[in-house]
Sequence to fold (141 residues):
Amino acid sequence: MLERDVQNRIMLLIGTRPYLRIWRQSVGVATPYATVQAVIRLLERGDPAGALGLLSRARVIKFGVPGAADITGVFACGMRVEIEVKRPGGKQSAVQVRFETVMNSMSCLYVVVDSEESIEDALCKHLDACPECTDRKEWNQ
Ligand SMILES: [Zn+2]
Fold:
């Protein structure tokens, strides 16, 4: 199973829990859309060298925080949660481990999960220790 598949399953599983709000947290690099359109026009005109030249000079936009978890959110009690998703057997990168250290130092719940079972275990540990979130456990949206 791919990491993306695990992530989608987890988003579907916990995305509507009344004690938790989560959202995707993307990290990466992008090329502006106008540049991509210009590159496509050059390729359509049969100018791959021009397209490569334009791409090599193109501005890039970095977004997100390096090492940030795949999913972030907040519990009803106010605690931040960071969920790093791995395919079964996957490992964190060094920058992800540094991000985890920072989050843990700020009393955030940071978890690395590779399945629906592992996210359920992590959420249960929080609920067992948090009356405020447990009170909302059975609420409808
Ligand atoms: Zn809580």
Summary: The first strand starts at residue 20 and ends at 24.
